[in-house]
Specification:
The complex is a heterodimer of chains A (431) and B (321). Chain A is an alpha/beta fold. Chain A is built from twelve helices and 18 strands. Chain A folds into two domains: 102 residues, Urease, subunit C, domain 1; 307 residues, Alpha-Beta Barrel (TIM Barrel). Chain B has two domains: 144 residues, Rossmann fold, CATH 3.40.50.1370; 151 residues, Aspartate/ornithine carbamoyltransferase (Rossmann fold). Classes of the chains: A alpha/beta (431), B alpha/beta (321). At the A-B interface, helix 6 of A face helix 4 of B.
């Protein structure tokens, strides 16, 4: 069956990959690809015309870090529900972390994730393979075969690569194939038993803290090993001012280090833990206002390359317990745009073009994915959002199975209206 | 719902100076009950109280049980092995099941900081925190306040130093909040590896690295128990060295410019954080703390059950003073 062409009419067409910003233009998709993006054009024959005036039309968002829980925890998320949640959040592509059960550490497992993603018919799902077998940190996984099966990067996320020698080898081996090694930076001896940021709030609540240095020590180790090996290290979910300074140090020296930051670390502080709110528990933890300011500035000046959600659904029973025993992580796919817009674009820290660059163009480029552009001939992955629309977060309306969000009940600005993958609508607000 | 304290007693951080004074004042008349031949008043007759202990605590559990029984409440003790968390019933399920049996209050001791608040948000019954993780132990804080007020005649301007493992101590946090709110000056003293990184943020006036400095400065020392596990976890090299550097000894106290009141929440590790001749000496109020613990807990239970502070004297009968 051929897909009917679509004309997105009258929106603000914003494509930072080409420096394109047309106040009221058209985007025309046909045959699964972008045929035109820019000035107004006439109605092409047979096209479905969708009026998007007053909204922004951008390349589809790309999330290089989410947890879709399948296989293993289909009760909390499946690749299908995750891919639909992604589409609802304006993401046309997401990278699924391999800390599944069993771990996605071989070509068959990678192929399974890939196939489930295709079946979902929502956002594209790109598997990330494990660095080590079982994420145990002992034996290297078969990067080559996993890449052939569809993996776009490797990571032991959820756990750090503790052995520096293993990390060195992973960077060298990954360089052979030209893929990034995404590391969860955490010194396990410093972070051991910690439940939140070490600081004023942990002292008051009597919770064991995780010091900033647990992240920073691993960040600088990874940067130094990237310098040694020439490999591409991608630092996951950066959360501290110190990490920002270390990344800046590495980039100034031309080291191949890139980094992501999550919307929650750009917007919330340790104070959100309040009186033991487990929806404010994640790893790395929410830090201080000073860290948030440093991260916001780092996104603005490019020290941090992109925004990634670290979407981590949990069953509500698992979060409904004593703080120290509750699992880490929050859902993020369906609030990412609004959180970044509310905390960074609305106050003037980022322009809309920068937001799109950090959520689409750059992550696509870093992980070598199609998309992130509206250039003629590019894949038809497009997001349409209203940057001015105010809406109230209601976890009950989420597409993800997860309900664990610290933004529940908050009024945010910026809302996704339409998401297209391969020139087909995969999400329409209210539909 | 108590007009004075609200539904629960979860911590001292959220209480006002006025509320703290009210609890201490209410405890005064309840002291007399324990001194009588017949140690019982009908204040909580018909009330059902569950002592839900996820950690062993002979002293605190016994103290609560005496307080409850002397107020004529019906009590049930439940000891839950903390290790059953993974396979057993969740805390909220346990509490809901208890509540389905129509209880009035839960006194909870739990190894996880915040567990009493978690429970209080989910059940109708009054919840009393009997110590949660490394967070707070509010009734211990209250009994320390009462003992200090008895002994020194005032709390305003009193200089109290908490000595030892402040990082892992719920007693320390409750003491810091309670003492500060009632106008005392608070210091802490101990090895830096056993002080929380942000200890200054709790509003302590001094952080002493040497116990000699603490002794010179303070009117009273609250000496914390040093758990053997701290040495095993590597926070300090040995109990022996701890005693030599931070131990409260008679020799050290004799060099003090004045006599210090010595408190300890118990159980004592003799020869570790405190020497026997100090614990048993004339300035130790350790056993007064235990006695006051029952009175303070009676006051808390009475107030939470809706008792009015001005009627506490009448409630205890007043006929056998």
């Amino acid at each position: 069956m051929t897909v009917r062409p679509i004309l997105l009419r009258g929106g603000r067409v914003l494509d930072p990959s080409r420096g394109l910003d047309v106040a009221a233009g058209d985007v025309y998709l046909e045959g699964g690809v972008v045929r035109h993006a820019g000035a107004r054009i006439g109605d092409p024959a047979d096209a479905e015309v969708i009026d998007v005036s007053g909204k922004v039309v951008s390349p589809g968002f790309v999330d290089v870090h989410c947890h879709l829980r399948e296989p293993g925890r289909e009760d909390v998320e499946t690749i299908a529900t995750g891919a639909r949640a992604a589409a609802a959040g304006g993401f046309t592509a997401v990278c699924a972390m391999p800390n599944t059960d069993p771990v996605t550490d071989n070509q068959a497992a990678v192929g399974f994730v890939k196939r489930q993603g295709v079946e979902a018919k929502a956002a594209r799902v790109y598997p990330i393979g494990a660095i080590t077998l079982g994420q145990k940190g002992e034996r290297l996984a078969e990067f080559g075969e996993m890449i052939q099966a569809g993996a776009v990067a490797v990571s032991d996320d959820g756990k750090p690569v503790v052995s520096s020698q293993m990390m060195r080898t992973a960077l060298e081996y990954a360089r052979t194939f030209g893929i990034p090694v995404a590391d969860h930076c955490e010194d396990p001896t410093l972070a051991h038993g910690g439940a939140m940021n070490e600081g004023v709030v942990s002292t008051r609540l009597g919770l064991k803290g995780i010091p900033s240095e647990a992240e920073e020590i691993m960040a600088i180790r990874d940067i130094l090993l990237a310098r040694r090996t020439g490999g591409h290290v991608h630092l996951c979910h950066m959360s501290t001012r110190g990490s920002v300074e270390l990344i800046r140090w590495g980039k100034d020296r031309g080291i191949r280090v890139t980094a992501e930051v999550c919307p929650h670390h750009l917007s919330l502080t340790e104070e959100a833990v309040g009186d033991y709110d487990t929806n404010a528990k994640m790893n790395p933890p929410l830090r201080t206002a000073d860290d948030v300011a440093a991260l916001q500035e780092a996104v603005r000046d490019g020290t941090i390359d992109c925004v990634a959600t670290d979407h981590a659904p949990h069953h509500y029973d698992e979060k409904e317990r004593e703080f120290a025993d509750a699992p880490n992580g929050i859902v993020g796919l369906e609030t990412a745009l609004a959180v970044v817009h509310t905390w960074l674009v609305a106050p003037g820290i980022l322009s809309l073009a920068q937001l799109i660059d950090k959520m689409s163009c750059t992550p696509a480029r870093l992980f070598g994915l199609a998309g992130g552009s509206l250039a003629p001939g590019a894949i038809g992955d497009v997001t349409v959002f209203d940057p001015a629309e105010r809406w109230t977060v209601d976890v009950a309306a989420f597409r993800t199975k997860g309900r664990n969000s610290p933004y529940q009940g908050q009024v945010l600005t910026g809302r996704v209206h339409l998401t297209l993958v391969d020139g087909r609508v995969v999400h329409r607000l209210g539909a | 719902m108590s007009p004075v304290l609200g539904k629960d007693l979860l911590d001292l951080e959220s209480l006002s100076a006025e509320q703290l004074r009210l609890i201490l004042d209410t405890a005064e008349p309840f002291k007399a009950i324990s001194e009588r031949a017949i140690k019982k008043v009908p204040v909580l007759r018909g009330k059902t109280i569950v002592n839900l202990f996820y950690e062993n605590s002979t002293r605190t559990r016994t103290s609560f049980e005496f307080a409850e029984k002397r107020l004529s409440a019906d009590t049930v003790n439940i000891a839950v092995a903390a290790s059953s968390i993974a396979k057993g019933e969740t805390l909220v399920d346990t509490a809901r099941n208890l509540e389905a049996m129509r209880i009035d209050m839960v006194v909870i001791r739990h190894p996880a900081s915040g567990a009493p608040r978690f429970l209080a948000q989910r059940i109708e019954s009054n919840v009393v925190n009997a110590g949660d993780g490394t967070h707070e132990h509010p009734t211990q804080g209250l009994l320390d306040l009462l003992t200090l007020r008895d002994k020194c005649g005032r709390l305003e301007g009193l200089k109290v130093c908490i000595v030892g493992d402040v990082m892992h101590s719920r007693v320390a946090r409750s003491n810091i909040w309670g003492l500060r709110k009632l106008g005392a000056e608070v210091a802490v003293c101990g090895p830096r590896s056993l002080l929380p990184a942000a200890i200054e943020s709790l509003g302590v006036h001094h952080v002493f690295a040497r116990v000699e400095q603490a002794i010179e400065w303070a009117d009273a020392l609250n000496v914390l128990r040093l758990q053997l596990e701290r040495m095993q976890a590597g926070y300090i090299p040995s109990l022996r060295e701890y005693n030599r550097v931070f131990g409260v000894s008679r020799a050290r106290l004799e060099r003090a410019p004045k006599d210090l009141v010595i408190l300890h929440p118990g159980p004592i590790n003799r020869g570790v954080e405190i020497d026997s001749d100090v614990a048993d000496g004339p300035h130790s109020v350790i056993l007064d703390q235990v006695t006051n613990g029952v009175a303070v807990r009676m006051a808390v239970l009475y107030l939470l059950a809706g008792g009015r502070p001005e009627l506490a004297t009448a409630a205890q009968g007043g006929d056998s003073r």
